[in-house]
Design brief:
Blueprint: E1 8-11, E2 14-17, H1 18-71, H2 74-78, H3 99-112, E3 117-124, E4 137-141, H4 158-175, E5 186-187, H5 191-194, E6 199-207, H6 211-217, H7 220-238
Parallel strand pairs: 3-6, 4-5
Antiparallel strand pairs: 1-2, 4-6
């Protein structure tokens, strides 16, 4: 192009020299470089926005799913004494946990296994009106292959449930003075253990229909001793 330009070019009252044109070319080249950089940055930002929008969409879908799962419990929030199965607690085929409850239990194991435990505390009894041959602390946990409701759910953390139960029994046997001490925890298909997926145990503190146990459990000091043993068991569990 420059080869076709003579020494001077007249534009209105201004005179552009070859030197001026060279300077303008440099400015144009510089602007084109800036524009190219801006385009590259814009494309990168657009890609980042698209990626974030996908994450936002995924989060919104997850939030919607969690709200749906939460709504399955709503009837029980509104009617805490209701004892029948509805919403998320409706049985699936062959008395298995519903699909939504399985999702909640899978999520519970994924999110809360390391930080939260569930402990249900009771006083025990047999079917006899009075008995003296069974006494003391019993601790239960549910595994993935109990004798009843075998197909209900299969993703419990059995090793940690067993470890928690063993520590609870070990420490409460030390802190209480019942006539008998169970040496190992037992497997039990109790609903409070079956229908949650935290690391869980159920502790039975003496037998109400054993007169000797009953004399003990009515005493504040004995209940405090049992609670102290459970506390030590929990501390030992988290100090793994």
């Amino acid at each position: 192009m420059r080869q076709e330009i003579k020494d001077q070019v007249h534009l209105g009252n201004e005179t552009l020299t070859v030197e001026h044109l060279s300077e303008l070319d440099n400015i144009i080249n510089s602007l084109e470089s800036v524009l190219k950089s801006v385009r590259t940055q814009t494309e990168a930002l657009e890609q980042e926005i698209q990626a974030k929008n996908k994450k936002i969409s995924a989060c919104n879908s997850e939030i919607a799913e969690l709200k749906k799962l939460l709504s399955g419990f709503q009837y029980y929030f509104d009617n805490p004494s209701y004892k029948e199965r509805t919403g998320i607690y409706k049985y699936g085929a062959s008395k298995t946990a519903s699909g939504d409850l399985k999702k909640v239990m899978d999520l519970t194991r994924k999110k809360y296994q390391d930080d939260i435990i569930y402990l249900s505390i009771h006083l025990n009894a047999t079917n006899d009106s009075k008995q003296t041959y069974i006494s003391g602390m019993y601790v239960f946990y549910r595994n993935n292959n109990p004798s009843t409701n075998t197909g209900y759910y299969k993703n419990y953390n059995v090793s940690e449930r067993s470890r928690l139960s063993s520590l609870l029994l070990q420490e409460t046997n030390k802190s209480t003075k019942f006539a008998q001490n169970a040496s190992t925890p037992r497997v039990g298909d109790f609903s409070v253990l079956r229908e949650n997926n935290l690391v869980s145990a159920l502790a039975e503190v003496g037998f109400m229909n054993n007169p000797n146990d009953l004399k003990l459990v009515v005493q504040d000091s004995v209940r405090e001793d049992a609670a102290y043993g459970m506390l030590k068991g929990i501390v030992a569990y988290f100090n793994k």
